[in-house]
Write a sequence for this structure.
């Protein structure tokens, strides 16, 4: 599993690339695209943190009931 910093860097890199494509592949805008991608990633992280706070602890515990066999037509 990649390190968290590596995951964030990869997300930012991909977002910056998509921004570059959307703008028609202009030259000399790499730094601007990187900064925008960083801001968008920070917003994403803040949103995910807020969502986690709202849903923790989970209201329903995970089910530990195993699913086995064919439920339809087994006699």
């Amino acid at each position: 599993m990649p390190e968290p910093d590596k995951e964030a860097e990869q997300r930012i890199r991909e977002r910056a690339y998509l921004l570059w494509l959307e703008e028609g592949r202009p030259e000399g805008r790499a730094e601007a695209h990187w900064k925008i991608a960083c801001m968008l990633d920070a917003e994403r992280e803040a949103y995910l943190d807020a969502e986690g706070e709202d849903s923790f602890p989970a209201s329903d515990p995970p089910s530990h009931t195993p699913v086995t066999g064919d439920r339809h037509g087994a006699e």
Observations:
- The chain has a mean pLDDT of 81.
